[in-house]
Amino acid sequence: MGELRAHVLLHPVRMRVVLVLGADDLTTKQIHERLPDVAQASLYRAVARLVNAGIITVVERHRRGGAMERVYRVAATPEAATASATPEEFVAATETVARSLSLDAARHAAAGEWHPRSAGLLRENVHLTREQFELLRREVVEFIGELVSVTAQDDTEEFSLTIAAIPRSTPPNYGSTSFNGV
Hints:
mainly alpha, globular, DNA-binding transcriptional ArsR family regulator
């Protein structure tokens, strides 16, 4: 991912557009319906920057009255974009996804729908061989693909699902790693 592409993705609205487009091909109007808290002018600017950077692409055009309606698709998924990222770009992309996750949590809590089982967080450290990791990755991607293919129904609720698997590196030795006797 080039420096320009990484910089473009660092903006929270642009990253949210990419995340929304990861599931479906959408028009700007449909993107706005999924991101109603984003001002329309900000959304149009974000889409234009993403198109100019080659992160999203126009896959269809339809004449609607006097206007041209465009349907957008992600040119490269965030996973594919980070596959060729520098370490700094990978960290920046991770921070952007984390901010997006925090925004989702804040919106959910502010909507007055919060209760302890309405959302979930899980973070575990596991020991895996490279082969086990690849198997886990394939199975998770396959399972998520099945979930994403389910269309909205009256008895379903849309969830934001964020999964990260990052090797745990040994921290540099800065002396004691305990804080306040912990």
